[in-house]
Each structure stands twice: as structure tokens, then as C-alpha cells.
Amino acid sequence: MPIPRAIARLNRVGLNRIIKRIAPRLPAFGVVIHQGRRTGRSYRTPVNVFATADGYLVALTYGKDSDWVKNVLSAGGCELITRGRRVRLVSPRLRHDVARRGVPAPVRPILRLLRVADFLQLSLDTSGR
Measured between alpha carbons, how far is 79 from 101 in angstroms, rounded to an integer? Predict the structure, then answer.
């Protein structure tokens, strides 16, 4: 089980407000911009993110049932701001990887300690939209 939902609720109210401001510039962090499934409202969610050959891999530290994950899956993509760059991502796919092969070796023990083995794989949008 990833980080408990109660902690997620506390972070949403407090810590995330600060993290959202610095995450777009930090290595291994980013902000996912997504639309609410029901409200259509735009949301910004700080995440742990890692570049891949064709896109990005997001560690699902609060699990695959988080609202933001459901929103991205439902919409078929999102935008990501990371390392000062904004990119459009498409084709979201859930991945379960207990070996955590898609993340840098120094990060694996941290994710193992947090029991994070679910990830969201996203590809760069090359359509020019």
C-alpha cells in the first residue's frame, strides 16, 4: 500500500500548495495539469516524475486510485511541467513494477520503502497539437 489516503488529504490542503510552486523546477518532480472528469475544472498536481525514451513515468505515491490518475486516464493525457519545461503527454498506461526498473537506481530504495510499485507511463504528444 502506498502512502495512506489520510496523508494525501493533508498534503492536498497544506504541503501541495508549496510543492506546486517549486516542483516544476526540481529534478524528479513535476506538476501534472489535468481536467476533472466530472467538473471539467483544471487541476495541478505535484508528482514524482522520471524521463523515459518516449515520454515520462510518474510514480503513483498515493496509488492508482487517486483522482488525478483517473482524470488523466479518462482524458487520454495531460500536460506536465518539469525542469522548467511544459509538455503535452498522451496514451496514459498504468504499470505495476515491483522492481521499479523505470526509475533511477538511487530512487528505487525510497519507493520500495514507501511500497510504491505502481506507475503511470505517458508518451510525448508528437501530433503537434
Answer: 24
